[in-house]
Amino acid sequence: MIYSDFLGMKLSRLGFGCMRFASNPETGEIDQEKVNRMFDLAIQAGVNYFDTAYPYLDGKSEIAMAEALKKYPRESYYIADKFPGHSLPGPVDNIALFNLSLKKCNTDYFDFYLLHNITEWSIKVYEGEEYHIIDDMIQMKNEGKIKYFGFSFHGGPKLLEEVLTKYEGVFEFVQIQCNYLDWTLQDAKQKYDIITKHGLGVWVMEPCRGGKLANLSDENKAILRQFSDNSDASYAFRFLQGLDNIKVILSGMNEVEQVEDNLKTFAEYNPLSDEEQKTLFEIAEGMKSSVPCTACRYCCKGCPMELDIPYLIECYNDYKYAPSMMSSMRIDGLDDDKKPAACIQCGQCTHACPQGIKVPEILAELADLYEKGPRWTKTHKDRGDAIRKDLEGK
To answer: What are phi and psi of 189, to 5 degrees?
Structure first.
């Protein structure tokens, strides 16, 4: 197992993500025996970092993780958990909710604790005076119940820079979605550089883009076979091994075979060659349906609605690859007069664009994708109701 040094700690570069445990499709119950086998295998090979979150698997992930870890000494592994501010139904007793996670995880403290899913929408909750989330979590850290404080992030580079500047000295690490596809599609490179510039550690989620980079097309598989017969996933992980400031790479493993393959990849440091990386980037470009916006912002200067067009095109490109609630949440964070539907189709942006992008058409399509695609609204309500119920029954 390869390790990284983070503030004197020896962290396994491969972290065990606890969001995708196998469960019975009829009952929803987690296959605890399989979880135990996977954890045993991972721990024997040197994995020492386990990541869960309050909402994962309808609140069952924390319990399943704790059950699998209970036979091991607490000082032999690190637990990461997350505060579900993005899921709150309104202001709640944050300390009670935090303590509920401690109880479910069968621990007195969290080694790593994150504000879950900061975006342009959820930052309004995390910073809301009536919620006082950050202050309460700092209190938990001062009491020794949080060793290292960070946040997971799904927003754009501009917001990331603003948060890290405003809260300089508060956070020690940031978890971002990073892989060879999102290196450009979701500006992961820029986010990685921003976090590194601020002197914080980078944690990675979605290294295989929800499994899409672990199961490439037959054509792309054949391209990679020129280098080796290793799994598609191994190339995604080796891409990240080459980034020095990435301390932990989380993999949401749900099968023993996945654990075995990942352990093989992380048995030794083996970053991509220049030719392998070039090939991966070419594969990534072929997977996209992106609008080639360079964020020069010429289009914004004469926009009568003062829309942040490059930001909206970022959201559009993400929608075109894979519509998700995360994409909708970024648009949710905008005022109505700054959402794509606010475009009046004047066309000045197209005339100003050096790339000749037909911006009004793009924004009209984005407005339709946003309206008809996955929305955070219902999931937020369901999770908020679950939090209320949990706190009432604590």
So the answer is: -60, -45
